[in-house]
Amino acid sequence: MTSKNGPKLFTGRHMAAILITFFGVVIVVNLVMARFALSTFGGTVVDNSYVASQHYNEWLQRAGAQDRLGWDMSLRVGDDRRALLSVRKDGKQLDGLTVVATLAHPLGGAEPRAVRFVPGADGVLRSVEALPSGRWRMDLSIRRAADEARYRVDVQ
């Protein structure tokens, strides 16, 4: 009685199946990763980095002037989804403020929209419109006479 239990041969078909499977997995992973990358890309921070670099010192001077103002800004979302903005200096609420605010989705998923503020109780400024749910970025420009401060706040 003879048995053919000896080692099986590794043929070209085996190698072809291994190569096709390997490269198939690599291609599928690359396609999935490219899809995720393209669907979450929010765009560029600046359109031309060279031009932006030419304004760097100016931006540093503005940031220094803003720090010297000594303003303490806080922004929170109330239970009714309205933004509540408080600006203090030396612990006292500042009045006579003009606020220009823009609400934008951090990934560019929605068009930016203007947010208007009106004075509320205790000098706190309150947004006229309720903020949509989700994660947003609010750019604020706050003026008082000739003084100006700019802030960027993440809002949820």
Q: In words, what does this structure look like?
A:
The protein is α+β, with helices and mostly antiparallel strands. The chain has two domains: 11-40; 71-155, Domain of unknown function DUF4426 (Immunoglobulin-like, Sandwich), CATH 2.60.40. The chain has helices at residues 12-40, 49-54, 56-69; strands spanning 71-77, 83-89, 92-93, 98-104, 113-115, 117-119, 125-127, 136-144, 147-155. The strands form two sheets. Strands 1, 2, 3, 6 and 7 form a five-stranded antiparallel sheet that branches. It has a four-stranded antiparallel sheet with strand order 5-4-8-9. Strand 8 and strand 9 (147-155) form a beta hairpin. The longest helix is centred in the N-terminal third of the chain and has 29 residues, at 12-40. The N and C termini lie far apart (79 Å).
Number of distinct beta strands: 9
Number of helices: 3
Q: Beta-strand percentage?
A: 25-35%
First-residue to last-residue Cα separation: 79 Å
Instruction: Quickly count the domains.
Output: 2
Instruction: Report low-confidence residues grouped into runs of 5 or more.
Output: none
The profile of the biggest β sheet is: 5 strands, antiparallel
What is the CATH top level name of the largest domain?
Mainly Beta
* H/E series: HHHEEEEEEEEE
Classify the fold: give the CATH topology of the largest domain. Answer: Immunoglobulin-like
Structure classification: alpha+beta
- Molecular shape: elongated
Mean of residue pLDDT values: 90
Radius of gyration: 29 Å
The helicity comes to 25-40%
CATH superfamily of the largest domain: Domain of unknown function DUF4426
The CATH architecture of the largest domain comes to Sandwich
